[in-house]
Specification:
This protein is α+β, with helices and mostly antiparallel strands and 689 residues long. The chain has 13 helices and 43 strands. It folds into 3 domains: 246 residues, glycosyl hydrolase (family 31) (Immunoglobulin-like, Sandwich); 342 residues, TIM Barrel, CATH 3.20.20.80; 77 residues, Immunoglobulin-like (Sandwich), CATH 2.60.40.1180.
Length: 689
């Protein structure tokens, strides 16, 4: 084994294998390993231009003679070896003479280290398991590898981030997470550790991350190389800023993103949509965006309005703009084999290929194939169709649904993209999907760009991605799971996030239990990065006709407007519409901070209070920006909430106006029309007036 310096890079080489350790922005290192002579050049999410940094690289010769040798034997068996270190600001990687890597902060405190269980040297702790920290195992008959990277586990460590998973625990220590996207699951493999570092797995391959009590293990089923980014900081905010700089900052949110979005499954016609918008304005209610959901089109893959139901989109968009409402239109990546675009896209290689079996990827409402969002030509082609059929009517915001993509089934080993086998790169699909629309809109001169996307991976944020949590169930349990999903998406570097208020599936608008859930969720939605109503409300309307021009037609769920759930509830929902409006200047400032330094808009308490150990334990409250502590009511029948108030601040209950010192747990009233909100250090907000 050789350890040497190559420019600003520290190299560990053995045979055809090489490990590169090099600076990648302030206080950060990028580590790559190849098992072949040529390092794979794909940067995946680490595409941002970083400042040139000259690290401190030092070598040291050490005595490695086994300690039992003395006297003449010592002289005979005397051995020396070289170890090295590379320091970039607050992070240092130490490489032992055997190639083990350990990471330290500027105070010399261990952050994390590789997990080795071998018997190379008997004079220190070892077990003869022959388990190594970095393992690239060749896949038989090919040039690809199965990858496993192992790190030590620490009893005191808490782990946050990693994207969106449908479970209740905010702290991912002890979790086994699939590194793959599914409907309601978005794998964004960046974590922040309570030990003072952030770690990004720069690999879009399908695999798993295991944060066990005995070891941490990252696994990719098929890949070309090991690639990760590690950064150290004194606070989670510093760590987040360094990571977001490496993967790209979110742009400034457009003004319409700060207000209320109205949506349902689904507005069936132009007249139906306009009637809702007009009624909102007639009642004097704020609305910034209204959404035209799926199957408004002639056929999947045509990317255009059905002219019978949507006869004059240009006039519709013009009227909505006059009302101060942005039009959002659903786009799916599915292309029906009967679509007018199918033949051209197939000929040009713009569709995802299946390695075996037929080419149908989804059979819901037609036999369809996903377009290849990793293909630059396919990105451009789909955007051009949408420019012709949507943009020219004044539509500027797109709902990019099915962005995982939602294969049926999720046989990742069966699909192949322009960028490579799905097993190696499928997690970048939503990035390419959003990038195609972002680039297209930029080319038209647009600057306020936002796309509502049902998935994300690292780097999605720089393309104006607003992620929502998919087709979740209408229940308090699901609501509780969305809270941690939103917080962990923010920590993972995706600051624009929302959920379907009330849940997507299973909500009967006449059921008192559902109405209670919706009111609680709506109040919480007013304190989320984006405030968006959506859902498939039951019971469904009957179809007026089964088929039109050979295309199966889709009906609609029940009404989903704020006046649809009873007069008493309407008054509550109306109140929160105006609370959101009152908070608009504050939310705008939070969005500016997200754009400037990567700060999540909604974040766990420890983000703002890292010195308070108790804040690292709280999973049912969060900070909405730096000044508002929000505690959603997530239990049926509850009329109070118990809240921990972080140390180092004074807190005022926005509802009762009672003032509390931080560092204590309090119980506050939470009647059906109140979500508990604590205001920091005497700041003034118009919430409950």
């Amino acid at each position: 084994m050789r350890i040497y310096q190559e420019g600003n890079r520290l190299v560990i080489a053995e045979g055809k294998s090489a490990v590169w350790i090099e600076p990648w922005g302030a206080n950060s290192l990028r580590v790559r390993m190849s098992a072949v002579p040529q390092m794979d050049a794909n940067d995946w999410a680490l595409t941002e231009k970083m400042e040139d940094i000259t690290p401190q690289i030092a070598f040291e010769e050490i005595d490695v003679t086994d300690p039992w040798y003395r006297g003449e034997a010592y002289a005979k068996y005397h051995q020396r070896a070289k170890q090295a270190r590379i320091t970039n600001g607050k992070i240092t990687a130490k490489v032992s003479h055997e190639g083990w890597i350990s990471y330290y902060n500027q105070r010399g405190e261990l952050l994390t280290e590789e997990y080795w269980r071998t018997r190379d040297r008997i004079n220190r702790y070892c077990v003869p398991l022959r388990v190594v920290a970095r393992e690239l195992r060749p896949l038989q008959g090919g040039s690809d590898f199965e990858l496993t990277a192992r790190f030590e586990a620490f009893d005191d460590e808490k782990i946050f981030g990693m994207g969106q998973y449908q479970e209740k625990n905010l702290n991912k220590k002890g979790a086994v997470l699939e590194l793959a996207h599914r409907n309601s699951q978005a794998s964004v493999p960046f974590m922040v550790s309570s030990r003072g570092y952030g770690f990004f797995w720069n690999n879009p391959a399908v695999g798993t991350a295991t944060f066990g009590t005995n070891k941490t293990e990252w696994h990719a089923r098929s890949t070309k190389k090991l690639d990760y980014f590690i950064t150290a900081g004194d606070t989670p905010a510093e760590i987040e800023a360094q990571y977001s700089l490496a993967t790209g900052r979110t742009p400034m949110m457009p003004e319409y993103g700060l207000g209320y979005w109205q949506c349902k499954l689904r507005y069936r016609t132009q007249d139906e949509l306009l009637a809702v918008a007009r009624e909102h304005k007639r009642r004097g209610l704020p609305m910034d965006a209204i959404v035209i959901d799926f199957f408004h089109w002639t056929m999947q893959g045509d990317f255009k309005f059905e002219p019978l139901d949507w006869p004059d989109p240009e006039a519709m968009v013009r009227e909505l703009k006059e009302l101060g409402i942005e039009t959002v239109v659903s786009v799916w990546p599915t292309v029906d084999e009967r679509s007018e675009n199918f033949g051209r896209m197939s000929d040009m290689g713009y569709l995802v290929n299946a390695d075996r079996g037929n080419q149908n990827h989804m059979t819901w409402m037609g036999n369809t194939v996903f377009y290849d969002a990793t293909h630059p030509g396919a990105q451009k082609y789909v955007w051009e169709r949408c420019r012709e059929n949507y943009y020219r009517y004044g539509i500027r915001c797109f709902w990019l649904d099915e962005a995982e993509p939602e294969y049926g089934p999720y046989d990742f080993d069966n699909y192949r993209y322009y960028a490579g086998p799905a097993l190696q790169c499928t997690n970048t699909y939503p990035v390419g999907y959003a990038k195609g629309f972002y680039d297209g809109l930029r080319a038209e001169g647009e600057t306020d760009i936002m796309s509502l996307v049902r998935c994300a991976w690292a780097g999605s944020q720089k393309y104006g991605v607003l992620t929502w949590s998919g087709d979740i169930y209408s229940s308090f349990r699901a609501m509780r799971e969305q809270l941690q999903a939103g917080l962990n998406m923010g920590i993972a570097g995706i600051p624009w996030w929302t959920s379907d208020i009330g849940g997507f599936l299973g909500g009967d608008i006449s059921d008192p239990a559902f109405r209670e859930l919706l009111v609680r969720w709506f109040a919480w939605g007013a304190f989320c990065p984006v405030f968006r109503m959506h859902g498939e409300r039951s019971p469904w309307h009957e179809r007026e006709q089964e088929f039109r021009n050979g295309v199966r037609q889709l009906t609609s769920g029940q009404d989903n407007e704020v006046w649809s759930f009873g007069e008493d509830n309407y008054e509550i929902l109306k109140k929160y519409l105006f609370i959101r409006e009152n908070l608009r200047p504050y939310i705008r400032t939070c969005m500016q901070q997200a754009s400037e330094n990567g700060s999540p808009v909604m974040r766990p308490l420890f983000y703002d209070f890292p010195e308070d150990p108790a804040s690292w334990e709280v999973e049912d409250s969060y900070m909405f920006g730096p000044d508002l502590l929000v505690s959603p009511v997530m239990e049926a029948g509850a009329d109070s909430r118990t809240i921990y108030l972080p140390r180092g601040a004074q807190w005022t209950d926005a509802y009762t106006h009672k003032v509390y010192e931080g560092g204590q747990t309090v119980t506050v009233p939470a009647p059906i029309d109140v979500i508990p909100v604590m205001v920091r250090d005497g700041k003034a907000f118009r919430i409950y007036e």
